[in-house]
Amino acid sequence: MPELVDRVFKTIVLKGKSKNLYVCVIHGEAHLDLKKAAKDCEEKNIDLLPLSELEKETGYIRGGCSPVGMKKLFRTFFDKGVEKLLERKNTKIKI
Q1: Minimal CA–CA distance to 43: which of 23, 62, 80, 17?
Q2: Which of 29, 46, 56, 78 is most buried, by the most CB atoms less than 10 A from its CB?
Q3: What pLDDT, on a 0 to 100 scale, did the predictor assign at position 63?
Q4: Can you give the pLDDT at residue 92?
Q5: How is 10-50 classified by DSSP, letter by letter?
Q6: How far is CA 87 from CA 45, 81, 92, 95, in A?
């Protein structure tokens, strides 16, 4: 269903040099720029959280990380495309 592609977003968990974790929500077809993410997170550098640490750190398995209502509190960043999606009729959440 190509018309639904613009409604797909990915939740990506990052780990900074400080060992702090961050959550980024980006459009399904987008790529995350780690240099920009590090700057936004006020980290010297940042990388994807290794898959082997995901469940231990977040409480979720790969594919099961929801950015809203996570078990632990993480600083979360949303792609600007999320705002456009929320402006549509019948949207059930507010950020």
Answers
A1: 17
A2: 46
A3: 85
A4: 53
A5: EEEEEEETTS-EEEEEEETT----HHHHHHHTT-S-EEEPP
A6: 33, 10, 10, 11
- The letter for the amino acid at 2 is P
Q: Report d(CA 10, CA 74) in Å as an integer.
A: 16
**pTM of the predicted model over 0.90:** no
Q: Look up the domain containing 59 and give its range.
A: 2-86
Is residue 87 scored above 70 in pLDDT? Answer: no
Number of domains in the chain: 1
Q: Is residue 93 part of a domain?
A: no
Spatial contact of 87 and 94, defined as CB atoms under 8 Å apart: no
Q: Which residue has the tokens 């082997």?
A: 52
CA gyration radius, the chain: 14
Here the CATH number for the domain that contains residue 67 is 3.90.960.10
